[in-house]
Each structure stands twice: as structure tokens, then as C-alpha cells.
Specification:
Layout (H helix, E strand, L loop, with lengths): L10 H9 L6 E5 L7 H4 L5 E5 L3 H10 L8 E4 L3 H7 L8 E4 L4
Parallel strand pairs: 1-2, 1-4, 2-3
């Protein structure tokens, strides 16, 4: 059986609804993959950090990043545990998003 990602094209709407929105927030996207959902969230956010343990997927995300989002989106090829251990204690996020990450 083939898996279709978001066949109804409602994922970003539902994620936004459950999160309370991303307007002017610092967002951590866990399991961002190649940025599929990132490009839908980031235009609303103040800043978005995407993490994924796959070097390949993060490389694809960096290649696909729209010019207008380059200053507010940052990617790291790390697991959540690695990222949490490496960030300064002053780093704060308003919300975290996990979609298709488990």
C-alpha cells in the first residue's frame, strides 16, 4: 500500500489550527525532512528552526529554500536530543511542530 502525504491538502491548515497559529512566533519543526511543511509554516513565523536526523533530507531542504525565507529559516541535521544538547540555554521557542515525524 502506498502512503500519500496529505491527500486532502489539509495538513498545514490543521497544524495551524491546533497550534493556535504561527504569526510572529519562533517555531521548532521536529522531523522537518526536506521542508515539505516548512515552506507552509515559515512565511507566518518570525523564525523557524527545522531539525531532522537525515543529512540527505536537510541538504534537500537547504536546496529548496525560497530566497524570501533564507533569513528566517535555519536547518540542522540532528536528532532532537542532539539539537537540545547543542543549543544555548537562552534559545526559546513559542511552539514545536511534529508532523509525520513518529
Amino acid at each position: 500500500m502506498a502512503i500519500r502525504m496529505d491527500p486532502e491538502n489539509l495538513e498545514s491548515e490543521v497544524v495551524c489550527l491546533f497550534s493556535g497559529g504561527f504569526a510572529d512566533k519562533n517555531v521548532l519543526e521536529i522531523g522537518c525532512g526536506d521542508g515539505r511543511l516548512t515552506w507552509q509554516i515559515a512565511p507566518q513565523a518570525r523564525r523557524l528552526v527545522g531539525i531532522d536526523p537525515s543529512d540527505e533530507k536537510i541538504a534537500k531542504a537547504w536546496q529548496a529554500i525560497p530566497n524570501k525565507l533564507k533569513s528566517q529559516v535555519h536547518f540542522h541535521a540532528q536528532s532532537l536530543e542532539e539539537y537540545a544538547a547543542s543549543i544555548p540555554s537562552s534559545e526559546r521557542f513559542d511552539c514545536a511542530v511534529l508532523s509525520w515525524s513518529l
